[in-house]
């Protein structure tokens, strides 16, 4: 993951990581290289520029050139800024409701159904919750089947009603079913389209208004680069969601979208998906990710 970005940043910081002499010129050159590496990794132009400006300012402010190990300090500055750019601290998930309702949004194929299962499994195993999955995709019967397969795999019940074609009433019925059956978490998997469209946005906004979720999460395929950022913006404009789930970070992704999304929508990345298996879920730790990127 993030291999090409890591490699490039590594190259950019190479001079500084060694104990060679550091001059103002190679600090400037290094920040330029860092910026190029970010741009190559699909990081939004404006964000990359602001990022490197901040790094340069900090480096000058902390008098990097006068310290004993300027290279290491420079690497630390880049790492800290990268961590900040991705959200600073890890942000938790709000489970204060009874039951806590978690609404999934995102395009078709982004990994919503898979992630719904992963999250249910995680909350069951790590947080001792008793989740219920709710199938709200009324357009694709296969999507309902898929959620049932996932539910069977992890031993979590799935609420569905193939006769009901109204996703809003389905979602409400799912929450009512959870209440009646002692489930303290409800995860609602919704329909996704291949592209952002008005009907889809209206539908998910209506579901949200009907069930008042503690968490509305936006699921996005990290392999889709800048498109991921645009989709995130479109969903956030309508839903004002609470957090982002980045899926497919196990793939050959350049990872820049991960860095840009947080800055563009100003919402935390909460979890990442790192594979197709139900266990392939991780809490997103910005500092850990920055470490990984910088190697
Ligand atoms: P949905 O249409 O948004 O519900 O997407 P799905 O959950 O059906 O996922 C679409 C495809 O992506 C499926 O083949 C999943 O197995 C795959 N997938 C989902 N999450 C991940 C992930 O984190 N890594 C990888 N490699 N594949 C994933």
Automatic annotation (TrEMBL):
Alphabetical keyword list: Cytoplasm, GTP-binding, Hydrolase, Nucleotide-binding, Ribonucleoprotein, RNA-binding, Signal recognition particle
Main localisation: cytoplasm
One record GO biological process: SRP-dependent cotranslational protein targeting to membrane
Enzyme class, first EC level, given as a word: hydrolase
Function summary: Involved in targeting and insertion of nascent membrane proteins into the cytoplasmic membrane. Binds to the hydrophobic signal sequence of the ribosome-nascent chain (RNC) as it emerges from the ribosomes. The SRP-RNC complex is then targeted to the cytoplasmic membrane where it interacts with the SRP receptor FtsY.
Protein name, entry field: Signal recognition particle protein
Residues of the whole record sequence present: 1 to 295 of 442
Lineage: superkingdom: Bacteria
Known catalytic reactions: GTP + H2O = GDP + phosphate + H(+)
Localization, UniProt: Cytoplasm
UniProt organism field: Lentiprolixibacter aurantiacus
Family: Belongs to the GTP-binding SRP family. SRP54 subfamily.
Record EC number: 3.6.5.4
GO molecular function list: 7S RNA binding; GTP binding; GTPase activity
Domain comment (free text): Composed of three domains: the N-terminal N domain, which is responsible for interactions with the ribosome, the central G domain, which binds GTP, and the C-terminal M domain, which binds the RNA and the signal sequence of the RNC.
Residue stretches making up the SRP54-type proteins GTP-binding domain: 268-281
Binding site for GTP: 106-113, 189-193, 247-250
Gene Ontology CC annotation, any one: signal recognition particle
Quaternary organization: Part of the signal recognition particle protein translocation system, which is composed of SRP and FtsY.
């Amino acid at each position: 993951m993030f291999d090409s970005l890591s490699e490039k940043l590594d190259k950019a910081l190479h001079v500084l990581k060694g104990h060679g002499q550091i001059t103002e010129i190679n600090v400037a050159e290094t920040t330029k290289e860092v910026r190029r590496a970010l741009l190559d990794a699909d990081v939004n132009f404006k964000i990359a520029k602001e990022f490197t400006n901040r790094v340069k300012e900090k480096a000058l402010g902390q008098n990097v050139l006068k310290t004993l190990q300027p290279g290491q300090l420079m690497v630390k500055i880049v790492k800290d800024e990268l961590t900040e750019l991705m959200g600073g601290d890890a942000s938790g998930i709000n489970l204060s409701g009874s039951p806590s309702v978690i609404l999934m949004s995102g395009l078709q194929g982004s990994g919503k159904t898979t992630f719904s299962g992963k999250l249910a499994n995680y909350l069951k195993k790590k947080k001792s919750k008793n989740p219920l999955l709710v199938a709200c995709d009324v357009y694709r019967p296969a999507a309902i089947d898929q959620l049932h397969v996932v539910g069977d795999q992890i031993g979590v019940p799935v609420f569905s009603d193939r006769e009901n074609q109204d996703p809003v009433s389905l979602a409400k019925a799912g929450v009512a079913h959870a209440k009646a059956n002692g489930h303290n978490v409800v995860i609602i998997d919704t329909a996704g389209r291949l592209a952002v469209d008005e009907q889809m946005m209206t539908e998910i906004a209506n579901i949200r208004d009907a069930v008042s979720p503690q968490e509305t999460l936006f699921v996005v395929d990290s392999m889709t680069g800048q498109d991921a950022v645009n989709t995130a913006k479109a969903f956030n404009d309508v839903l004002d969601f609470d957090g982002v789930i980045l899926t497919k970070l196990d793939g050959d992704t350049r990872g820049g979208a991960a860095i840009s999304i947080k800055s563009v929508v100003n919402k935390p990345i909460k979890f990442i998906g790192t594979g197709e298996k139900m266990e392939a879920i991780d809490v997103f730790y910005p500092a850990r990710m920055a470490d990984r990127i910088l190697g």
